[in-house]
Amino acid sequence: MLPKQRQDQIVRALRADGAGGVKVLAGKLGVSEATIRRDLEQLHAEGRLTRVYGGALAVDGGDEPFADVNAIHAEEKDRIARRAAELVTDGESLLLDIGTTALRVAQHLHGRSLTVVTSNLAVLEELQNDEQIELIVLGGFVRRSYRSLVGYLTEESLRQIHVDWLFLGTSGVRPDGRVMDSTMIEVPVKRAMIKAADQVVLLADRTKFPGHGVARVCEPGELSMVVTESGADEATRAQLTEAGVKVVLA
Amino acid sequence: MLPKQRQDQIVRALRADGAGGVKVLAGKLGVSEATIRRDLEQLHAEGRLTRVYGGALAVDGGDEPFADVNAIHAEEKDRIARRAAELVTDGESLLLDIGTTALRVAQHLHGRSLTVVTSNLAVLEELQNDEQIELIVLGGFVRRSYRSLVGYLTEESLRQIHVDWLFLGTSGVRPDGRVMDSTMIEVPVKRAMIKAADQVVLLADRTKFPGHGVARVCEPGELSMVVTESGADEATRAQLTEAGVKVVLA
DNA sequence: GCAGGCTCGATCAAACTCGTTCATGAATCT
DNA sequence: AGATTCATGAACGAGTTTGATCGAGCCTGC
Q1: Is the CB of B34 under 7 A from strand C?
Q2: Which is nearest to A211 in space by CA: A241, A182, A183?
Q3: If B102 and its partner were Cys, which of A136, A161, B96, B128 is the partner (CB 3.0–4.6 Å)?
Q4: Could you read off the pLDDT of A164-178 as tens digits, one per residue?
Q5: The architecture CATH gives domain B3-58
Q6: What is the pLDDT of residue A192?
């Protein structure tokens, strides 16, 4: 990427988020923090952003809280996401589900050569400026509360593609191994996603074992792998293993 | 290949990708980096691209988005966008094209009860938090430099929907009334958009009359209306009127 | 108000890019 | 045929960008 392009993207990223930390920007754009600092200095001199300690603010909407920049990550959930990201080899394609779980996976994909397909608007924002990643957005109706795309357009788009990996979130896994979800409207999309992937990986921290949900997404047999953590209910894990699902502890 | 041909191709490549590095262009065109540098120097002198360290950027010519330097005709372009937004009645659906022109229309839609369909990521960002608006995103490959979605997924999504209004941007309208675009890759998407709308409205400020572009988007007869401003070339306007297009001055 | 962790700018070496120069070969002119 | 023009690629020194490192300064929690 050209230096000028990178600087344009920094400005764009700040417009989207209101603010950005040096470390975050460096990760997003795949360069060192030193380079980001130099860019910020230059852009500040040009009046295209406001430099602050730890990062920069967008120049117009500069009243956003900067606290988010140093937000603390939920360490455990992040470990699961990191483990999931390690499963994928460069050059492969993956499908990221709706929800924060999938967003966390996306955060670990920066700088890698991958094709990412998603209906998750938070993932789109996260990876929008990452040149390395070929990003494909599924169509659909914007569901603001969940920052996602749903509906028949999404399902139709899924029928047009096929990927190596699917990373699926869930509201909970029932004791018999069935994967559940709390919102009906997402279920047809999740089913279509399962059909569009070779490997279906479920991401679920220990609080999802066992868990509830009104809508059944799929049977355990439809999963290839479950990434979870130690502390997840033994019986449910056994049920999954029996169904031929590989259970990985992050 | 002739030098002129090669230079045209460089300009075309930049329009498609937004920017290009010397090394990348040399590889693409099968010549040495020295030759590319000489070409870039010459094209820069002709104003057909912007030279930057490491390569070149596409020049702001067509309905080219997000180059940050478009504060020039902002006032006039905004008047056209406002006029366009007034055409739509609450409860109706509209399709917004790629580009800054469509983004400006979106900025005038806040708070209204409408269904907005788009493949423009800037429009998505603009309307994402507007509860009143039902927002539908077309699928597709993310084209970062233009903040848009393109490709067969986009076209396929367009086949699934139909809207009342389409607001179309352009790089220029030829003297015979043909609507042109500067980037080939957008054309199939724009054609699919035209098919998916009852009323096709072209938005074009006076600098687009007459204008050029490598790719033909549609014949004047396919348009329902053109919103422009006084000062736009009379002859071209007459040509449009003759083709049955209503020409509105903002 | 103190300690520990971050962030900062400065500095340096390595990698990259730039414009210039020169030699080569093809096409055109004399 | 010989001379001239022109585009091209290789080579080179100068200038630019980048990432790593380091000491100084700033923030936060105790």
Answers
A1: yes
A2: A182
A3: B96
A4: 999 999 988 988 889
A5: Orthogonal Bundle (1.10)
A6: 96
Q: What is the pLDDT of residues A22-54, one digit of tens each?
A: 988 998 888 889 999 999 988 888 888 888 888
Give residue limits of the domains in chain A.
Answer: 3-70, 75-249
Torsion, Cα of B14, B20, B26, B28 (10° steps): -60
CATH number of B74-249: 3.40.50.1360
Q: Report the alpha-carbon angle A71-A72-A75, nearest 5.
A: 150
Do residue A156 and residue B156 have CB atoms under 8 angstroms apart?
yes
Nearest-Å Rg of the Cα atoms of chain A is 19
Torsion angle (degrees, nearest 10) of CA A145, A148, A151, A156:
180
Closest CA-bearing residue to C1' of D21: A34
CB-based contact, B74 to chain A, within 8 Å: no
User: Which bases on strand D have an atom closer than 7 Å to a protein beta carbon?
Assistant: 7-11, 16-21, 26-27
Alpha-carbon distance values, B81 to A207, A235, B100, B226, B247 (Å):
50, 61, 10, 12, 14
Residue A193, helix vs strand vs coil: helix
Q: Is there a contact between A149 and A190 (Cβ–Cβ < 8 Å)?
A: no
For A75-249, CATH gives 3.40.50.1360
- Say yes or no: Cβ of A22 under 7 A from any atom of strand C: yes
Gap from B85 CA to C15 C1', in Å?
Answer: 52
